[in-house]
Amino acid sequence: MKTIKKFLILIFLLFASSVSGHTSDKIFDEAKKNFDKKDYEKSKFLFQRNIVFFPKNAESYLFLAKIYNNEENTEEEEKNLDTTLLLQPDNEEAIYMLINIQLERSNFEEVNILMNRFTNVCKKMCKKTKEIKKSLQDFEANEKTN
Fold it and tell me: What number of other Cβ atoms are within 10 A of residue 47's Cβ?
């Protein structure tokens, strides 16, 4: 009898976890569709909802950061990028976005730290390294002329 109860509990737990994973995918996919259509308000709501139910979904935080970037809300963008990197330390897109924030702030020390991190983890966005170095050189040239 105990074996049957354990078996039923196991089946229930497996079913519940597969349903919740499906729900996460469904909410995320709907949010991404809205993001791609540039319906940022609706996608923001859906990404936030996804985070409420699945707080370890790094991609939702990354997309929220992109939305806040579009809204020019740097503080919220940075918070979401930091959370993305807590969950996925090797997320090169989040690191790249943080580099751009630090470049805008002229925080070259932080840019160099992030640049080293970016260089170590880049797989898809390695070409952006040249772009970042060029931006750093341009800022340093401007600093010298001022």
Answer: 28
Measured CA to CA, the distance from residue 137 to residue 28 in angstroms comes to: 39
Rounded to 5°, angle at Cα 62 from 56 and 65: 125
Q: How far apart are the first and last CA of the chain?
A: 82
Structural contact between residues 50 and 34, judged by C-beta atoms closer than 8 angstroms:
no
What pLDDT score was predicted for residue 16? 47
Q: What is the pLDDT of residue 134?
A: 83
C-alpha dihedral sign at 138, 111, 109, 70: positive
- CA-CA distance, 102 to 94, in Å (whole number)? 12
